[in-house]
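Researcher: Quick test of sequence recovery. Tokens follow.
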């Protein structure tokens, strides 16, 4: 994971994480709750100062694995969830309490389903949000 972390910007790129191990005989999808939870534990142990995480293109549909760590992710201000499988605001609402200033959600079903009310619904969950792409 160290090759995906930029210490200058304190950003971690986990986009298409399942493709990180070419030639290996294992598959590690972040869409599996146990995998996501373990990855978050590793992040908190080794790079707790991370301010940006890109989780785009991982077929993520549930965000519950992040919930137990919200209090420890208070440096996280940028979260990219583009092109995943998030279908409902209740999944995103579980992350309430993160001090996000930037969130990317483009390519998730919830964006199209809520239409124009999507922006208001997200701002209700993340009042500190300044940039929303979705």
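Model:
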């Amino acid at each position: 994971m160290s090759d995906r972390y930029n210490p200058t910007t304190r950003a971690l790129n986990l986009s298409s994480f399942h493709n990180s191990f070419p030639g290996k005989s294992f598959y590690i999808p972040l869409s599996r709750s146990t995998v996501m939870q373990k990855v978050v534990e590793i992040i908190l142990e080794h790079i707790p100062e991370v301010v940006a995480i890109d989780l785009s293109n991982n077929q993520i549909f549930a965000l519950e694995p992040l919930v137990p760590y919200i209090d420890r992710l208070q440096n996280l201000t940028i979260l990219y969830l583009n092109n995943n499988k998030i279908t409902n605001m209740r999944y995103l609402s579980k992350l309430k309490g993160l001090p996000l200033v930037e969130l990317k959600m483009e390519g998730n079903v919830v964006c199209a389903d809520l239409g124009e009310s999507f922006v208001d619904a997200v701002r209700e969950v993340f009042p500190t949000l300044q940039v929303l792409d979705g």
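The beta strands are 5-6, 11-13, 52-54, 78-80, 102-104, 131-133.
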